[in-house]
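Progress report, Aim 2. The chain analyzed during this reporting quarter is listed below.
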Amino acid sequence: MNLAEAETEITVQFYDLDPMNVVWHGNYVKFAEEARCSLLDKIGYRYEEMRADGVMYPVAKMDMKFIKPAVFGQKLTVKTILEEIEPSLNIKYIIKDSATGETLFKANTMQICVDVLSGRSLYEAPEKFRKGIECLKDV
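Predicted structure tokens for the chain:
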């Protein structure tokens, strides 16, 4: 189920490259993080709001599929799809070449809601998070 979606534009920078002149594999995680922040911003439940609610969402699992390397100067579109928020935050990422639409990379993350003070896992999303998603559906 798609609860929310966002698209983030990224231009591959020189410092993203490895010695083979393609994007170093670890930087795809950075691109996904940037896109996840854009999605949370769209929902209105950023890391600052999480902290104020006394929760955090560390990544517990990430599955990645590298399809084709990105190169210097290439413009990328990262689509993030929020699929689930309870019992865990599940997000799908698709990175495409902005000009051609060709898919270069796919990933999924599973993040667990954790109480900051106790370190215990929580299985319900905070009310502000759920309301932010509901507000998007009303637009």
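The chain has one domain: 4-138. The CA atoms of residues 49 and 128 lie 8 Å apart. These observations will guide the mutagenesis work planned for the next reporting period.
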